[in-house]
Write a structure and sequence with these properties.
single chain; about 325 residues; mainly alpha; GTPase Activation - p120GAP, domain 1; 2 domains; two-stranded antiparallel sheet; 14 helices; elongated; RasGAP_CS; RasGTPase-activating protein; Rho_GTPase_activation_prot
């Protein structure tokens, strides 16, 4: 131990791999890594029922759309697509950096980090359903082949969820027994991302060019989406979920809105009285007809406050949306 290497030097990777001493070291370390890999894989497979419905539903949609687009593809290719989504975006980051989600309370050593990266790489290869490209990783090919079917069973269980509308129907029934206000936590950039996706793909989800589509009305009011804010300004806010066609504001008055209740009631009545104007504006939007800028900016302010009813939303955010809309109208 700790003696200078007495064997040949300046060897290639292939030549070093054939050395008897190197083979003994590699075999021992491969067994240790496979033991750890078994533990990680068991935890992932056995926790399938703990995966949130939304993630499982997305995985189901990926599998169904792949099968529809490529009818002749086998289940391993479909599983690789689903695995590329859930593993790369949810499991891999936590394995490589467990401190990011407070799984550990100390900084990892360089050796521990390298081991976790190697484990994540092997699991990702298994999840994607591909072969190793690096020669030194091919010693784990037997382990990957051994557990490939186990992971396919996991993917089958993962996408075995009810259709979205059936799930929402159950949520609606449960909601009848609750009196609490429904809220959702989002960041500013998440709102902007949703705005941008709806804006960019409006011709896809509104192929019939329905002028009365409620989402189209909102997009016509908001205009072009703003760019993302920097990290320090990307605050997390609570949004109260409201029905778009609910005109009864009496039940919506609570302690969170008392500070600006009179102002908000006035604005809500102002919006209701201009419903016909908004319908006309949506039609003008589809036909690419310019609308009056001052009137549109005023409606942007009213609509943003209707969608983002929350005391924590700064005036800066509202001003950014108005500035983006002015740029779009120029």
């Amino acid at each position: 131990m700790n003696r200078p290497w007495e064997g040949p030097k300046n060897l290639t990777a292939e030549e070093a791999a054939e050395d008897k001493y190197v083979k003994r070291l590699v075999a021992s370390r491969v067994r240790q890594l496979e033991y750890v890999l078994d533990h990680f894989l068991t935890c992932i497979v056995e926790s399938v029922d703990l995966v949130p419905f939304g993630i499982r539903w997305i995985c189901r949609q990926l599998a169904e759309m792949t099968q529809k687009r490529f009818p002749d593809v086998d289940r391993y290719k479909i599983g690789g697509l689903v695995g590329g989504f859930i593993y790369l975006r949810f499991f891999n980051p936590v394995i490589v950096a467990p401190e990011s989600v407070n799984f550990v309370d100390h900084k990892l050593s360089n050796a521990a980090r390298r081991n976790l990266i190697l484990i994540a790489k092997i699991l990702q290869t298994l999840s994607n359903g591909v072969d190793f490209r690096d020669q030194y990783m091919k010693v784990f090919s037997p382990w990957v082949e051994k557990h490939r079917e186990d992971l396919q069973i996991y993917f089958a269980r993962l996408i075995d969820v009810d259709p979205l509308f059936d799930h929402l129907d159950i949520d609606d029934l449960v909601g009848l027994t609750k009196d609490s206000v429904q809220t959702v936590q989002v960041t500013f950039n998440q709102i902007f991302l949703l705005h941008r996706l709806l804006w960019q793909h409006r011709k896809v989800w509104n192929k019939s060019k329905d002028c009365n589509d409620p989402v189209l009305k909102i997009l016509a009011t908001l205009g072009a989406p703003p760019g993302p804010v920097k990290f320090s300004d990307n605050h997390l806010i609570n949004l109260q979920l409201r029905c778009l066609n609910n005109n009864n504001d009496d039940d919506d008055d609570d302690d969170n809105n008392n500070s600006n209740g009179d102002d908000y009631d006035h604005k809500s009545n102002h919006l209701d009285s201009k419903e016909d104007n908004k319908n006309n504006m949506a039609r003008d939007y589809i036909a690419n007809v310019r609308v009056n800028e001052d009137a549109l900016v005023n409606q942007v302010r009213e609509k943003i406050k209707t969608i983002l009813v929350n005391d924590s939303v700064p005036e800066m955010l509202l001003e950014q949306c108005r500035t983006s809309l002015r740029t779009y109208l120029q």
